[in-house]
Amino acid sequence: MVSLTINGKVVRAEEGEYLLAVIRRMGIDVPALCQHEAVEPYGGCRLCMVEITKDSWDGWKKYVTSCLYPVEQDLIVTTHSDKVNDLRRGILDLFLARNPETPLIQKLAADYGLTRTSYEAIPEPNDCILCSICTRVCDAMGFSAISMVNRGHGKEVAPPLHQAPPDCVGCLACAQACPTNYITYEDVGNRRTIWNKQFELLVCDKTGRPTITKEFADYLIKNREIPEDYFRIDDASHREELADKMGRITRWSVTEEAK
Amino acid sequence: MRIESEKQLRDYRKKLIEADKKLVKKIMVCHGPGCLASGAEKISAEFEKQLKKKRIKGVSIESVKKTGCHSFCEKSPLVAIEPAQVLYTRVQIRDVAEIIEKSVKGDDVIERLVYHDPKTDEAIEKYPDIPFYKHQTRIALRNLGKINACDIDDYIRVGGYDAAVKAVLHMTPDEVIDEVKKANLRGRGGGGFPAGRKWESCRKIEADVRYVVCNGDEGDPGAFMDRAIMEGDPHTVLEGMIIAAYAIGAKDGYIYVREEYPLAVINLQKAIEQAEAIGLLGDNIMGTSFSLRIHINRGAGAFVCGESSALMMSVAGHVGEPRAKYIRSVQKGLYDQPTVLNNVETYSNVPMIISNGADWFTSIGAPKNSGTKAFSLVGKVRHTGLIEVPMGTTLRTIIYDIGGGIQKDRQFKAVQTGGPSGGCLAEQHLDLSVDFDTLTAHGSMMGSGGMIVMDERTCMVDVAKYFLSFLVSESCGKCIPCREGLYQLYKLAIAISEGRGKEEDIARMERLSDHVVVGSLCGLGKSGPNPFLSTVANFRDEYLAHIVDHKCSAGVCKELIKFEVITEKCDGCMACISACAVNAITGKKKQPHIINQELCTKCGACVAACNRDAIAVF
Ligand SMILES: Cc1cc2nc3c(=O)[nH]c(=O)nc-3n(C[C@H](O)[C@H](O)[C@H](O)COP(=O)(O)O)c2cc1C
Ligand code: FES
What we know:
The structure holds two protein chains of two kinds. By secondary structure, chain A is of the alpha+beta class.
């Protein structure tokens, strides 16, 4: 265990924990847009930046992303100093130029006193904040069906060659994890469409309700040792067990639970 | 043969020197990047072809050496005759026979081909007497221009692998690290972090596997120091890495070579094979238990891949994107193992430090900045090329003595150091000492060694715009301050250059820059606003002239300028008329010409074509 000071309070934390986890545990609200519990921290949105120093640093301060900074003995952390707030406001101003119509960004920006960007908004904006949660979740599921493509300002999330992704099994992990609902899908009857790829959904033997895609089921049968008939029963206890086996990244039957 | 003792190496060297003495004359054909581009291969082939047919005592086809960059790229292709130290410039195929006849067979110098002082027109026969060479000290580039690039025998003959043998057979790893620490060798790839300290931290971490990595990504546009070393003296890179690997206890090394450098890959590969063949690399080096395999990785072609964490991701086969470095790479680097990453030039200094000792190294250079630094000197200086100077040399010496001053005797305006995210220094900085700390203190940086000289016809807003556009397109896009912040900075710079800027924009850009510097994930973003910050710090009036008066005094920003013929100066030669692609210039021979403002696209072709400076830009 190490002990450190956050906003004046001395707290204890496990070695190897990241600052953000400790800050959140204390109930302090620090924005963190590229953070998702199912995947490793990324450090892209920079909103979780905090000010750190130590008594031994002679007044020297550093600005670090709390999602990635491991706790340290005697660290003194300030989550909302003037400088940090100014930095967050500056970053949100840039977010607003990129995603002017995205409710999540608008709300966060408003929290920091911004209603519109001071820059020229980009033409044809969309709701993708490039947090890369979708691609990282997809990697964690073991599919890597989508990825971040291009560099710099032209970066975007896309399947290979912008075609229906061959490795996608229609598990919806990306769509469910997307913080701005930019990734959409459509379930009609026992048909699912995501990333322009069509899937057939298995159907529960008892209720006739669709469960998951055939491709996803095949994958789970093969890789997570789950019996085949499992996916033909749409039952709450099954769902829980399965969610555990899959690391809780996706949910079982989205039609019912999600959104 | 395998080399397993100091004596064996010495004996082998003696033999090589004896054999070499039989060559009374050597013809050093520079095969550096500049000379290759201007046909050096054809010239060395011609020398070989003609020498095959001739019988000259003490001269054979072996006398033709294809060397690394000789330095004076502007005068390429270069051919030096040794041991006379005569340098022939801009050599053509048709000159080869004459050179053989007069300077190889005979001892005459062909006046026409030697360097002439641009002011006095005096011919200077020997290259050490040419000002371009006189102020240089070559350590990292010591063998360039002196030996065959891919010949381990040549390398050994001039003292190569002495240091590796000394380190591996006669020094403990700690002694090696101490020597490098005492020499205060600072990383030549940009940051200037002390290499010895890096090695020491890496060695101290408990681990079974450690790596040495060489950064040969050289992403700065126009820079070619590392390329010249990798192509022209690959063995020095290997030797530096062998010493580093021995010091930290690494069994595998990786050289990450920029995608655009295929010749570097070929030459390094050859060098690795040659070194392995005599037991200086591979398993049980010099008969000891120390083994090292060096692998070559082709770069992924992005500027950001030169950044340490992105480079290690790329070597490991992932997308070359930087990671946050709160855990340092000496602790958790390549494949999450303790890793030492150093630049090509850093490694090539190492053998000299081990051979000559730290005291020798610190006797060269400036306080806390020992040794030399290589630069590719380009831009509006009279003489461009690959130079190496002791740290502490002033910018003035580099630009005026080595570089020969500004082309066409125009006015100096700025010098940009540190690559795209470096900074521009002005007239008042010319007497600054060129070293890591001084450049950083004045808002620029050493970077990996690009040095671009700019004259009065360079617009500083345009310069900022140019480098920002480079960085915007090279940002990996992972973190928002760099991706969006540099983009907005670039947009604002464009607005100013087009006369749409507002006075408060400067302050806005400064604030935005601060957010990008503090907020970005890696060094690219953290130094990304430098092109703006350093130009606005040193040339604020020029920004204001664009914003308030809508004037670009350098005559560069198209939206703000007008081209006009100065009637008194124009002699009606019609050169501009034929240069103009849009037929905007009219006039008769021997009568002043006229530019039609409606048609003029402000491309500047007429200005370049005019020999009388008769076209003014307002
Ligand atoms: C955007 C960026 C690009 C870089 N490109 C290079 C490069 O091309 N070559 C290089 O040696 N170092 C480059 N660096 C510096 C490396 O991250 C690293 O500091 C260096 O290779 C360490 O070696 P040194 O200590 O010997 O200089 C770059 C850094 C950044 C932030
Ligand atoms: S949560 Fe996005 S950078 Fe930390």
